[in-house]
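anyone seen this seq b4? input:
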Amino acid sequence: MIERQLSLNLSDYLGLYDALIPEDHLRQINDLVDFSFVYDELKDKYCHDNGRNTVHLIRMFKYLNI
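predicted toks r here
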């Protein structure tokens, strides 16, 4: 089941992210690339009203590319 993640789940380890990832590195990807095309490409592959929720699709796409 596809659901767009509208809420932001903050981690207790957010400080590590800020300390380890420089601001001029991978963080720019979110500003430069619109990942909404992932939903359009995969909407026919998932059931919208039946089954368990999926892992956030854009997150999985980023994992594959990074």
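DSSP finds four helices and no strands in the chain. Residues 24 and 31 are 11 Å apart (CA to CA). kinda curious what u guys think
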